Amino acid sequence: MREYELVFIVHPDLDDTALNEVVEKVKGWITEAGGAVAKVDFWGRRKMAYPIRKQKEGQYVLVKAQMAPTFGVTLERNLRFLEPVMRFLVTQL
Fold first, then answer.
1. In Å, how far from its chain's centre is CA 32?
2. Residue-wise DSSP of 29-71
3. Cα 33 off chain centre by
């Protein structure tokens, strides 16, 4: 198991319950693959440097997790198909 940081930007129009559902879905993917989520940090709504999907703001979420290196590709594919997620970045610590 390696430690990773996942930062993703969620659509700004989502309310708190929908945002929590997205975060729980991501946490579920990690735990189902045998990983562990160490920390979830909500950075809140922030202005982006450039518009993404005609949006100038987004809700930022940081997830610190331990997972297998082979699961990173699957996680990125799942995030790509998750509609409310506008951008994401997975980095190894």
1. 16
2. HHHHTT-EEEEEEEEEEEEEEEEETTEEEEEEEEEEEEE-TTH
3. 16
User: What's the half-sphere exposure (Cβ side, CA atoms, 13 Å) at 69?
Assistant: 3
Tokens 């930007």, residue located: 9
pLDDT tens-digit map of 62-76: 999 999 999 999 999
- Kindly state the tokens that stand for 23: 């975060």
> Rounded to an integer, what distance in angstroms lies between the CA atom of residue 12 and that of residue 19?
9
Instruction: Quote the CA–CA distance of 43 and 85 in Å, as a whole number.
Output: 15
Report which residue type is found at 87.
Answer: R
Q: Which two tokens stand for residue 2?
A: 């390696």
* Proportion of the chain above pLDDT 70, given as a percent: 100
Q: Could you give the C-alpha distances from 15 to 57, 61, 89, in angstroms and in order?
A: 14, 14, 22
Half-sphere exposure of 45 (CA within 13 A, CB side): 10
